[in-house]
What does this fold into?
Amino acid sequence: MRLLSQMFGKDLVKVAQNAFLCGTMEKLELYILGCGSALPTTRHFSTSQVINVRDKLFMIDCGEGAQLQFRKARLKFSRLNHIFISHLHGDHCFGLWGLISTLNLLGRTADLHIYSPHGLEKLLLPTLAFFNRQMTYKVLFHEFETKEPMLIYEDRSLTVTTIPLQHRIPCCGFLFAEKPRPNHIIREMVDFYEVPLYEMNRIKNGADYVTSEGQTIPNSVLTRPAEPPRRFAYCSDTVYLPDLAAQLAGVDLLFHEATFAADNLARAKETFHTTAAQAAELARAAGAKKLLIGHFSARYEDESILLEEATRIFPETLLAKEMLCVSI
Amino acid sequence: MRLLSQMFGKDLVKVAQNAFLCGTMEKLELYILGCGSALPTTRHFSTSQVINVRDKLFMIDCGEGAQLQFRKARLKFSRLNHIFISHLHGDHCFGLWGLISTLNLLGRTADLHIYSPHGLEKLLLPTLAFFNRQMTYKVLFHEFETKEPMLIYEDRSLTVTTIPLQHRIPCCGFLFAEKPRPNHIIREMVDFYEVPLYEMNRIKNGADYVTSEGQTIPNSVLTRPAEPPRRFAYCSDTVYLPDLAAQLAGVDLLFHEATFAADNLARAKETFHTTAAQAAELARAAGAKKLLIGHFSARYEDESILLEEATRIFPETLLAKEMLCVSI
It folds into this structure.
């Protein structure tokens, strides 16, 4: 049996060990590009967010100016391959026209995937064809039903599931969920038992180790559990739906629209929006770890009234603002 | 014969005299909402400008984010009735979708007139119909040919004529020209000759005055000439067209694109754009009073290179920037 240090030089071992043994949390960050509602103000851009999952960028909604804010946040277009549109109101998708054209001007070649309720492709295609005579890349539309939660995206480490909402038109939120990750190797223990490099993946995935002498070392001695997978939920636009608590149970971060304060409850219902108090009630019922509220009505020059209202019910509430980056 | 003060009370006379006699320049201001080119940067919005003619607002081009910048400039949507689109490239018109929707949300009732080369109505209508199920106002499209100068707008005090440009697609600039205004009454002289109020309009328009004693007072004694009518020309996007000097002769302000510096002349020609030096040459040849350059390529982090290049040829050059307001 050879140790890592026998197989590789000393420095290379360090690199390999770091890759295998590193137990730090991987990047999961939410950027707010815009958190206003339908009417533009001098304070807010229309709705758009970007979630950075280990340097893959996923855009959620794409209001007018999203591409400008994307640049301002120093995010990289090349890392953006998936855009999720909650519903076909202009303040959630008018930024697509410009963003898609810009990516074309930049000579992008990778496919761009757009997920939305039905109707977007038919609307966008004629305009795209007119304004981008020659596309350097493909835009692939994935249109979904909005009645039931649906798995609409999956890769090695992440799933995205729709969250059916209730708005004036078909609308869904999105639940971003990390997949469970392999256990972390305890470096001192694998060194002690002289575990060879080629056994590491099996051990990370739960296998015990049998030494060359035939002794079985239980996995629990060699590893510690991975961090629990994190989840982020995006809910906008919608009336207050208390039943969402089940699907959102225990999310690490809940972004929920809070278009109005509680004294505008009637207006919220009428326009199929939520109050800050209701967003906080939902976060509490769901046992969310943090609540981020946004999609503010233009009437609130000072949004601290919304924050105070929510915080009284759910203390771990944050107020969205442009260029805010929240680590999940 | 009665004097003004005999016909009205003393205070009313002052108001009436001010209305008749005021000789100050009326408002003619240009606001830069965006002066970037096709690719967005953190420094610039896409192209859009607003010209304020005695509190009537005319928008020229409407790139993404124009409505946000319009708000930021503290301009009033209710004063905007006419939008002029130079050509159908996205960075000059992608802001229309959001702007039109916002005006609808605000419950606008006045018609909105949009002037553009052919094709815009067909492109916009399906999207507008989808995103604005019920329109509270009418959008009226006025599409023009781009080969010859055409008078496309006229009111009591202003005309707008197209300036045929040469770009990759049909494109026109716009010449905003005040109509000649009546002469200014010289207050001391009309007081001296006891000219009655009802004669004032005739005199402002050039008539002599005959006193009740039959004495003819020449108009030149009673009035001084009005300020010469002012003209503003907008030229973007285009290759360098020296022949424009004739149509632009003597303009008070020329906005001209200067996408590139002279060392990128080949690139400018290839993409049908102009260099700062060429814009300055045109301003000089036209005898413009001032030149404002914009539509900067994203490659220039520091645009002073463009300003210096233009200033060497035409000293009265200004660099456009967002929220700049130029009095014409």
Remarks:
- Chain B touches chain A through 31 residues (CB under 8 Å).
